[in-house]
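Sorry to interrupt, but I need a hand with the structure work. Please put the record directly below this note.
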Amino acid sequence: MEITLTAADGHRFGAYQAGPRDATRSLVVVQEIFGVNRHMRRVADSFAAEGYAVICPALFDRAERGVQLGYEAADVARGRDLRGGIDEHATLLDILAAAGALPAGASRGIVGYCWGGTVAWHGATRSSAFKAAIGWYGGGIVAAKSEVPRCPVQLHFGEKDGSIPMLDVEAIRAARPEVEVHVYAGAGHGFGCEERGSYVPADAALAQQRTLEFFAKHL
């Protein structure tokens, strides 16, 4: 269902909510640069089916409300433009508002994809709101690799990601040896999205299995 949240600075924004409200474990699911589109709602619903209370905040509402993009080149360009106009601190306020709207008493985690993978990293390093964090192909993580996570973190990268070279992944590993990093041989960016040409079902399934096991352990 669609809900409205309010961040600490007064910004009101939309979010997609799924899962049982009496759950003992909960997640903030963070969008790619394509908005809270059909794929992100499917991801949220998949976690809800595992018993998690889930909120997926519409981070693009800071720039333009109700954006839901596809995966063509023009969508990529528009998504990047929208993301570029949103301050990192404002995004953090939005995910913290989402975390605060999860069921009281439930253990809270965060998982993000693409841009959301980087946002999940910031949630782990710049707040104490989460007990575990997971990022799938977050391109901005390398720029913040010196930041120390305040909770256990797991990261997933494709070996052939055109926007995240393996040198970046190795730099993250070197800077943060305490972080669990998985690389998927031959996979590109967005290998976990069933609507993209880079989708690799086997790698997506393995990454999801590892994601669920990590949250089961830490939440």
The mean pLDDT is 97. The first strand starts at residue 2 and ends at 6. The CA atoms of residues 120 and 207 lie 16 Å apart. Residues 201-218 form the longest helix (18 residues).
